[in-house]
Specification:
With 214 residues, this protein is mainly alpha-helical. The chain contains 8 helices and 2 strands; from the N terminus they run H-E-E-H-H-H-H-H-H-H. It has 2 domains: 66 residues, no CATH class; 135 residues, MetI-like (MetI-like fold, Orthogonal Bundle), CATH 1.10.3720.
Length: 214
């Protein structure tokens, strides 16, 4: 025989409705403002840009509908196709090189605790440097007159063709120099993330502060 009082029995449906609201509706109530902001800040500009791409127009005023003519004009422009190709190659080179170097560093940190004490400091230094500062540093390093990169290539490796070599005169050397700088700045974060993932497989929690003090 149930010993529940009539008041408790009447309160059970209310409790069920409260639990249902907490599980189903309350999360959406918290997420709705964020979703509205995302749609307004990201969704609308994307949809508006796509809509404008199918119309003629100048500045902020749209003209008549032209279909895919704007895309035909863009891809018929040799400067655009060259820029698109270089951007694709740059992105692929940065991603692949960053992942490979970061994975190698993470494996070394995971397998050699003694080396991790030294490598962790070296790895985290570029991460702590602002992008503007690192860009200025690498610009001076690749300088054609007194840059350290040309000096190393000439005096350490004996490549005399890099004596006074200008890295930013043409597209390919400039892309190589910028790729090196971006990879140098991106590797620390990815390496620490991969190292944390490797340590997570051992049941350990890793943060940058624990890495530097390990």
């Amino acid at each position: 025989m149930s010993s529940a009082t009539p008041g408790a029995l009447r309160g059970r449906p209310l409790l069920r409705r409260q639990n249902s609201f907490d599980k189903k509706l309350l999360p959406w109530a918290f997420l709705t403002p964020l979703l509205v902001i995302i749609v307004g800040v990201v969704g609308y500009p994307v949809v508006r840009t796509i809509w404008l791409s199918f119309h003629e127009g100048e500045y902020l005023q749209s003209g008549p509908f032209v279909g895919l003519q704007n895309y035909r004009d863009i891809f018929a422009n040799p400067y655009y196709t060259a820029a698109l190709l270089r951007t694709t190659l740059f992105a692929a080179a940065v991603v692949v090189t960053t992942i490979l170097l970061s994975l190698a560093i993470a494996l070394v940190l995971d397998a050699a605790p003694r080396a991790a004490k030294v490598l962790s400091v070296i790895v985290l230094l570029p991460w702590a440097m602002p992008r503007v500062a690192s860009g200025i540093v690498w610009k001076w390093m690749f300088d054609d007159q007194y840059g350290v990169v040309n000096w190393l290539l000439v005096h350490w490796f004996g490549i005399e063709s890099f004596n006074g070599y200008s890295w930013f005169r043409t597209g390919t050397p400039a892309m190589v120099a910028i790729t090196v700088a971006v990879v140098w700045h991106s590797v620390p974060f990815v390496a620490v993330s991969l190292f944390a993932g490797l340590r997570g497989t051992h049941g350990e929690v890793v943060s940058p502060s624990t890495i530097s003090s390990s």
